[in-house]
Each structure stands twice: as structure tokens, then as C-alpha cells.
Design goal:
By secondary structure, this protein is an alpha/beta fold. It has 21 helices and 16 strands. One of its GO terms (cellular component) is mitochondrion.
Amino acid sequence: MAEVTIPIRMPFKSKQEAKVDKDSQVYKENAKHFANYVETLEKAEAIARAGGGEKSIERHVKRHGKLMISDRIKHLVDDVDDFLELSLTAGIGMDYGHVPRGSTLTGIGKVRGRYCIILANDGAFKGGAVYPITLKKQLRAQEIAAQNRLPCIYLVDSAGAFLPLQAEIFNMGGRSFYNEAVLGAAKIPQVAIVCGSCTAGGAYVPTMADDAIIVNKTGTIFLAGPPLVKAALGEIVSPDDLGGAKLHCGTSGCTDYFAADETTALQMGRDIVSSLNVFCNEEKEFAQYDEPLFDVNEIPGIIPSPKDHHNMNMFQIIARLVDGSRFHEFKAMFGVCLLTGFAHIEGHLVGILANQGGIGEAEATKATHFITTCCERNIPLLFFQNTLDDSNNTPESKEEALQQSLSMKYQARMLSAVSCAGVPKITVIMGNGFGTSHYLMGGRAVSPNFMFAWPNARIAIMEPHKLAEKVAQESELREEDAVTKLEEKLEKESSAIYGSYHVLNDGIILPNQTRRRLSQCLSICKAYRVPQEQSYPIQRM
């Protein structure tokens, strides 16, 4: 009997509810406010894409004859326009200065039809030196690889650790090698292409890989480079003689493939991926799907300023992101401060949880029921996060205290359900990510497959101004200027854009990019996924 696909046709409560008045003063003020966040983001992205600057780039390309990392990606992936770069703005505004892209580019693209995660050192910035933020970004990329079973391709071009900051790098520096071994043992392929220097600890990347390619003349691998050899032994030796392609392909055997130039090496990398004997799960072709009925570019006018984020209408947001603006709402009359329901994103069936207020006993119960239902049906979960700050909910009576205890009990069940969900989880922080509710709604701590944020989003233990008051009170700060500076600092640190600098999310995306990003991530999550068996029944109440 042929499989029957039942489309979700349930509309919103009313199309009228999804409409917005673009001529209203509130809409215009919201859009103007959002534009300020976009401007901040664009400045950070410009710094990231500028890399090491014109002189460094010229030296990298003309003197050393190397390709830029963006060009390496173009030669390696099938379609650069479909490449999903992660944490573009990592490394901006560090205490030790800007480190554009965190000195390494990470992202996911198809190579010969197979999704791979790519980790590429930026040799045009400080010789591809590894900073603390570089390590953090690399480890996050390997975590994504493990969770989604993505083959890893390392484009190595690094002078090793930035030694003045070795105290912040060394202890966890070897974790990337540990991950490489564990990923390989889990039958997740590891491929290295040595495009430039591969010094000190970095030498283990190609030598631990399943397949290693090295570029003649520019690719080198050694634990101690020529300067250290001269200092220790007084001998002068060239990088190529000490650890070049001919030596490692012909004598040491540390590398497997000799490439005359970078473009050849990258083509070899593509050929190796073809031989990995891994294939993406066959996906139903979603050539035809309905676009949302409402304009996604209206979303900035829907998003209130941070102090009014709690007024964000999630129905209006969802209407502009899902196929045909169709949302099959689940338990619509119960736990009304949390929206749950089914929809499609570019043809992908998903279960959506979206904040429309605080998470109390009813909302947590509803969420647990919905999450376990999605796990039973093997449906990915999307968390659209805009939580309330519940830090000041001090009970004023025994009845309130009992109610809070009950809420805590049901929230604990929800947190367990979120943490143990055996389906892909993707989180987009659209407004606030405050307090415990941030964890309940797929925060980084519960290991979503991907977590993105809109530029207006804020993530913190509580509202920054409340946190400033609490810290000032506990620290006995009485000077008004000191309290104001503290609040400004906490406000800055709660910003999702600031978080992206420190790899606390997987990148900042705009509302009009969200639908495409979600679709990409859903395809990536499904590519090599082995469905997990449900180990518990659907938890209704």
C-alpha cells in the first residue's frame, strides 16, 4: 500500500491575528530599534570577513602563494551558496584584541553530495595561530560533528598556539586531538588537508586523521620548526626539508597523498569523500512547498524593544516562518503561555515550542507531553525562545509557595524531557533567554544540535538591570556611577551579539534568514541520523 502523506492544513486561530499594521507608530519604532542591532552585527561581520588586513592577505597570497580560506571552501564544497558558516563573529572584542573569525572558519557544506563539517585555519591572520577563542570554536565544531555524525575535513594552516596566552590554551588544547580520535572510533571520518604550516601540537591533526593530504612546498608538518632547530642545534634547515610533502609522503609516511598545489589538494579531498562509503539518508524531495502567507521582512516591526520583549506575539512570528503559514496547534486551550504545535519548514515536518509568557505547571506539563509525542513520532523539535524573567517570584503565602513547588516539579519533568529527547533539537533565541526557562527551552546547556539567536536577543540569569541591583546590593555598591557602569556591563554581556563573539551560540541570524537556516539544519541533522528508540511512553499529565 502506498504511503499516504497527510498535509497539515490547520490554519492560525485567524488570519487576522497574524496581520500587522505597518503604518502604526509601534511597528515603525520597533523596526527602527531592530535596525540598530543589525548595524552592530554588520560592523562585527565586516571585521570578521576582513581577516588579518590587506598586508597580511597580500603576504599570504602573493609571497606564500596560498589560497584564502574563503577560496579553499569554494574549491572544496559542491555549492558555496549552500555552505552554512558557523560562529562568523567569534573572536571580536577579545581582551587580547580582535581575532577575526576566531582565527578559524567552521561550517557545514556538501562535498560530493555528502554533508561534511569543515574546520579551516586562517593562515592570513597571525599565521593561523590558535587563540583561546580558536580552541573554543574548534571544540564546538567537533561537538556538532559528533552530535550529527558529520565527516570532518580539517584545512590545516596554523603556526600553533599563540604562546603569550598558552595558560588559557594548553590544558584543553589537546581536547581537539582527543575528539579526533573518538570521532574516528565512532566511524565518523576524519580527513586532513595540510595547506600550510602544521606546527607543534597541530602536527597531530593530519597524523591522527584517516586520510591526510599535503601540499608541496607550502605544506609542512613538524613538532619543532626551523627556528627551534637552529636554537637547539645551531643547524639551519628549510621548512620543506624538515617537514615538507616529499619527506612525509616518501619517508615518514605521516601523510598519504602528495598534492602539487592547493587546488589539486582540495580536489583530492573531494575524491576522498567519495570513497568514505558514507551516504546521506535519502530525503524526500521537497521541491514543492508553500511559502508563508505573510512577509518575513515584517518581523523586525513585530519585535518590541528589549524591555517589552514579553509582548512579542509568537503567532505573528510563526506565521512568517512556516510553510503556508499553517500551524496545527497542540493543546491550544491548556498552558496557554506556551505555544506547541506542528508545522513544516521548507517541507520538513517539525514540532514547535514557542514562549508566549511564563512556564508554569500547566505549560511544563503541556511541553513534556508534546516533546515525548514528537520523540515517539520521530519529529524534530524547534524551540522559539522568548522567556520571562522569573527570578523575583518570591512567594507571599503558603499557597503561593506550594504552587511554586508544584511548578518546579513539573518544570523538572520538562527539563528531563528536553535533555533526553532523542530527536534533533534546534533553538532560535528570538527575544529573551532568562533564568531556568532558558534551559527548559533548549538552551546551550541541554545540547541542542544547533542554537542561533536574533541580534536583539539577550541571554542571562535574569534581567540585566535586576542583576545589577542584586550585585550592587550584595557588594554594597552605593555610588550611582558605579551601579550604572555595572548595569551597562551586564547589559552588554547579556547581548546575543556579545555571546556570538564568545561562541556562546552558533551564530547570529536575521529573521529573513531564519527559515532557510532552519531548513539547512534540519537536512543536516537528518543526513546521517540513526533514529533512537523511545525508552519511555508519552507522558501526558
